[in-house]
Amino acid sequence: MFTNRNIVLGVTGSIAAYKAVELASRLTQAGGNVDVVMTKAATEFVTPLTLGSITHRPVHTDMFAPSSDVDMEHIVLAERADLVVVAPATANIIAKLAAGISDDLLCCTVLATRAPLILAPAMNVHMYENAITQDNLAKLRARGFSIVEPAYGPLACGEVGSGRLADIEDILGIIRQVLARGGDLTGKRLVVTAGGTQEPIDPVRYIGNRSSGKMGYALAGAARDRGAEVILIAAPTALPVPVGIEVIQVQTALEMREEVLRAAPRASALIMAAAPADFRPQSSAQSKIKKETAKLVLELVRNPDILSEVGGELVKVGFAAESEDLIPNATQKLHQKRLDLIVANDITAQDSGFAVDTNRVVLIDRWGNVEKLPLLTKLEVAHRVLGKVVELLGKGRTQSIESTNW
Ligand code: CTP
Q1: Residues 382-395: pLDDT tens digits?
Q2: pTM of the predicted model, to two decimals?
Q3: What class has domain 6-179?
Q4: In whole angstroms, what is the distance from residue 122 CA to residue 107 CA?
């Protein structure tokens, strides 16, 4: 999504300026054209040479640089920008921007641009919490700036508090979200489920499965990057909480059912990438089961099938984890659960299925079209699935249900 997008990266004089190097590198590697604009103070912390070497483009530091290859730099940069992000943003630049001061190249560029603006503040905790800074941020927020809240932790000044530059991943997440405006899922609300549920046996133990949640998280991130509002209903996973996505954490299949049924009526599409357990222990012991007896018998009862219970106008996408007869079994699930699309994968293959970053899937839609995809990353699979969802949303469910022979 960064390919050929023009991103102005403003860097100001905070010790966190060195982290801008990583941000510039990630954006450049992802295909973005990154124009770095540094304040004079920023050049005390990190050199223009470093950022220029990373971005392979000239770094802009001076309004009146005689050697500049761009006339009226601030106007040119401001006009061609798809996005301007200031990271790190000091209290000083925040105050100047809130007041509309334009005494350096970065301030002028921000004032002159019509592109979306993101600020990632970094400063001492007391400077950040100061009512003046907070008022300035509120003012900028009200004017449409996206603010990436600083992280909590040890600060360069020796204090501990909020003021560390947000994680680069979080800044990238907001950048993706902002660039996604106008994407093909803009205005759509998607509910995505992820991970394997845990069905408690006692307060310590549970029945689980090998789903890592990676496919569902990739889908949620990709949908966000195409402009969707995403609600991710997630069973426990080891994955970081994605930025710009509403995450609802659940543990059991019954909890997941409740959240899906609550969210579905307001959604355009539901993608069930989770692996809800089909069975749960009939009762969960209140206290830890001791190993006094030689044998323990667990009685399991069926969990409800969540997908089958969801009705209404929304597009429904299911996954089919199969170890044999992939296409017939998946097609049967598509019909039984009244789905628009099923993503079938052979869980016995080494390079697809659980815990790995790649997946080899077959997409089957409700008209019986079968598309076998090659081995792809889970993110690529997510985009292929979402491409289908976009098509299905365009067709309209009610109308096309009539032509389906479920
Ligand atoms: N699913 C669901 N509720 C369940 C179990 C599964 O909504 N209690 C969903 C999954 O999220 C997936 C689809 O149904 O999108 C198919 O899941 P899968 O485990 O492949 O199939 P099952 O229906 O559970 O059938 P079986 O385990 O017998 O293959």
Answers
A1: 999 999 999 999 97
A2: 0.81
A3: alpha beta
A4: 17
